[in-house]
Amino acid sequence: MNIQSHWDEIRSIFDEAFKSCFHFAVATVNEDGSPHVTPIGALILRDDCTGYYFDENPVRMKRNLGRNPRLCVMAVNADKIFWGKSLLEGKFSSAPGVRLTGTAGELREATAEEIEAWHKKVALSRGTKGYKLLWEKMARVRDIKFDSFEPVLTGEMTGGLWK
């Protein structure tokens, strides 16, 4: 499947996933070749099959990307009403999740626009202790160029969703 032709749907799934659980699962490769998964909330997708994430808190992920810039990001809509309705009906009305595979760029300073977009995305949490500790001082990002995607499929319940 072509990532560009599905990009709007992919971005929509990422939006719903963030609303339902505030993070995405990002897989990188450890030095010994084993997988490492990090929860990252500070990821924003652009219009052109790229994105960026704020690289302030991850430790091992940062080291892993220094050795191997390839990564996979999975977004799953974890909303209980969405899942409950889907289970009752025996099908999903929209895709429950998607994986994006790509390459992370070098660490760089975030632009004012990128910082503003992030603060807008998490505006409802502003004023909380967690916001201050995790997200208030975001300043460095890595760009990601996504080159492929894989839908999260659940047999008959996701049948016909990805054409």
What's the topology here?
Blueprint: H1 7-21, E1 24-29, E2 35-40, E3 43-45, E4 50-54, H2 60-67, E5 70-76, H3 80-89, E6 97-104, E7 108-109, H4 112-121, H5 129-134, E8 140-151
Antiparallel strand pairs: 1-2, 1-5, 3-4, 4-8, 5-6, 6-8, 7-8
**By helix and strand content, what is the structural category?**
alpha+beta
Helix content: 25-40%
Q: Write the CATH fold name.
A: Pnp Oxidase, Chain A
Strand tally, please?
8
- The best one-word shape is globular
Instruction: Give the N-to-C terminal Cα separation.
Output: 8 Å
User: What letter string, H or E per element, gives the SSE order?
Assistant: HEEEEHEHEEHHE
- Supply the number of structural domains: 1
- How many helices does DSSP assign? 5
The CATH architecture name reads Roll
By CATH, the superfamily comes out as Electron Transport, Fmn-binding Protein, Chain A
Mean pLDDT: 93
Calculate Rg over CA atoms.
16 Å
Major sheet description: 8 strands, antiparallel
- Please report which band the strand proportion falls in: under 5%, 5-15%, 15-25%, 25-35%, 35-45% or over 45%: 25-35%
